[in-house]
Specification:
Blueprint: E1 3-9, H1 16-28, E2 33-38, H2 52-63, E3 69-71, H3 74-78, H4 84-94, E4 99-105, H5 106-111, H6 118-124, E5 126-130, E6 143-146, H7 155-163, H8 174-183
Parallel strand pairs: 1-2, 1-4, 2-3, 4-5, 5-6
Length: 187
Amino acid sequence: MKRIGLFGGTFDPPHYGHLLMAEQVYQQLELDEIWFIPSYQPPHKANAKTTAADRLELTKRAIAGHPAFFVNPIEVERASTSYTLTTVRLLKEQYPEDTFYFIIGGDMVEYLPKWNEIDILLELVTFVGVNRPGHSLETNYPVKEVHMPLIDISSTMIRQRVQQRQSIRYLTPPEVIAFINKNGLYS
C-alpha cells in the first residue's frame, strides 16, 4: 500500500513553484510518490495555450531525475474536460490499496465549495492545501496544510515573458526551457 500525492494542473508550463510545492508535500507528509496529472482541459480555466501532448512532455521534462515524481497521463488520455472526481474514481479502481492525497494551492482551497461533487470527493481523497501568495488556507473542509517558502512564479508569468522575449531562466527547469524554445511555444 502506497501513500500517493496527486498533483493535477494545466502545467502550461510547469515551473519551479510546482516542483517546490510537490517536494514540500512529499517530504512533510512522508509520501511514497507524487503523481503529476496534466489536465486535458480543466473545467475552471480557459483553453490551455499549448496542446495536451506538449504539456505532458513539458511535465515529464520538469520532473526528470526525481525518483518519487511520476507523470500520470490519465486525463490527457481521456481527452475530455478533466473533473477531479472522475479522475480520482478511476485511480481508486485501478489502485484500490493505495491512499491518495490531492494537492492544491491556496487559490484552489478557496474554490473548494464550487468543486463538482466535493462531498463525494472528500470521501475518496485527503486534500492537501499548500500556501500560495495572496490566498488563504482557511476553509470549512478538512484540508491538511503544508507550508512552503513562498515563491511567486506562475505559468502565466512564464508565458508572458516568452512572448516578450525575456529570460525564463531560473523560473523553470532547463529541460522545459529547451522544449519551449525548440517547439516555439508561447511566442
